[in-house]
Amino acid sequence: MADDPSLITSLAIHAEDLVAAAETTMHEEKRAVLRVTPPFSGRMRARLHVVQTDPEPEPIHLDPWTLLADDAPPVPTPDGTEDELRADPDRTYSVERHREYHEQRVEDWRGSILDHVRDTTVLPGTGTEVSLIILGP
């Protein structure tokens, strides 16, 4: 049956979609997921999606953080980067310096988070384990 998620053996996810979903989930009120829509087959693609209402049959929603290892660093927050900057005895705090520092820390996070992607995941509500394939850089 094409609406049976146990048919899925691997999920392809674009790297930018995973990073954007993880970052959005940490900062926005909107719930960003990686969505897999029926009909299901052995190889599927999960795409970035902001949850609103879903069609029938119901797609699979993957929380991006469940695809990352437990040691994955959180997205840097403005408050956190301000504290880091203020704690550095070799730097003087300014709003502009904080903005630049925060932007750099977020870029560094984006560049490193893909090192924490799991090899496999279990699809929610199915018990089906699938391999993860990250597309792109």
Summarize the structure.
By secondary structure, the chain is α/β, with parallel strands linked by helices.
Number of strands: 6
Helix run count: 3
Structural class: alpha/beta
Give the overall shape.
Answer: elongated
How much strand? 15-25%
Which residues sit in consecutive blocks of at least 5 with pLDDT less than 50?
none
Distance between the termini: 34 Å
Q: Provide mean pLDDT, rounded.
A: 90
The radius of gyration computed from the alpha-carbon positions, rounded to a whole number of angstroms, is 18 Å
- Largest sheet data: 6 strands, mixed
Order of strands in the sheet with the most strands?
Answer: 4-2-3-1-6-5
Which range best describes the helical content: under 10%, 10-25%, 25-40%, 40-55%, 55-70% or over 70%? 25-40%
Order of helices and strands: EHEEEHHEE
